[in-house]
């Protein structure tokens, strides 16, 4: 950690909080960069679910940072130690920055298992208890470019007591100090960056204390934990994130864990968040759905014509079916369909010969129709997951591109109206 080379260069800050910029100097040699607001590439054990490396790289504009999680990796520690050359080589990854987080954002962990000295992660074989020594041994074996420090993140449920929240902030700071101590003595981790974790549940003073104290440590960036979808009321979450980001240094990135829905991403960017995890397209794929929300803010009539037309039409169908509207559901069940996707298992698609999203340039939309995807899904063909994941990944990363464009061109309000489905009747007039 001899002087962090990671550097966040902000080109614009809109309304005091939404940040546009580039995170530079990433990776061992410092040659990679990542645009913010942006997201990391979500993987299971180094692989984007359903996609081979070849298939993945048919997609353009992929993030330069790949996220792996210790919950996947901890149970393979011995094999990795024997392999010796680090996780990147083990998983056949080449030109990417590797970020190692504690938990998988797409699955929720049972609570009640942390102690003063340990946190637990869940792999396919069950629970694995990590001490700081084991956690750091894993980092030395994995050899990531960044990693999230060990943290007690069990205080996201809104009935957590103040005492328990305070304890989680204290423990997380202690874990960070202990990790940093080991880190600084480890030659293998010399060029590796540490992200400190901000906890504090839904208690403002604890959030602020956690942010201030973490910012005093030599960390390269910050993970905002315990604010995931479903953990609390959205207004409260925005207030907490705003209060936290105010305490953090301008020149270091803030990664929000466990938030992926496009409407929530927009709100959290407005509260000062830079980075997200891209588990949302995977969840959408797993329920047999395709992302179809609009995000095109281009004034170019040719491009504007490519805005996905599916959304308005879907909204009408939803209204009739009594389904929730964007921003309407607050139950936080991450397995539930959101208003940003279409359910291709639905019978109505069995003879729908349009692409998933008109104008989408992905392999799936260029070569297949909704009816074919419907057939693959109802017959449980593996190709369904592959094609959906291609489209959903392309669509989601396209949305982040549009978000950056909107910040650069002062069109965030227009983008919001697009994403939320043009409600309000004013949206089509100008811009
Ligand atoms: Zn597509």
TrEMBL record:
Necessary cofactors: Zn(2+)
Location in or out of the cell: Cytoplasm; Mitochondrion outer membrane
Keywords: Cytoplasm, Membrane, Metal-binding, Mitochondrion, Mitochondrion outer membrane, tRNA processing, Zinc
UniProt binding sites for Zn(2+): 360, 362, 365, 391
Membrane topology per record: Peripheral membrane protein
GO cellular component: mitochondrial outer membrane
Keyword Acyltransferase: no
Disordered: annotated segments: 317-337
Domain tRNA-guanine(15) transglycosylase-like: 19-420
Chief subcellular location: cytoplasm
GO molecular function, one term: metal ion binding
Recorded family membership: Belongs to the queuine tRNA-ribosyltransferase family. QTRT2 subfamily.
Quaternary context: Heterodimer of a catalytic subunit QTRT1 and an accessory subunit QTRT2.
Protein name (record): Queuine tRNA-ribosyltransferase accessory subunit 2
Organism annotation: Sparus aurata
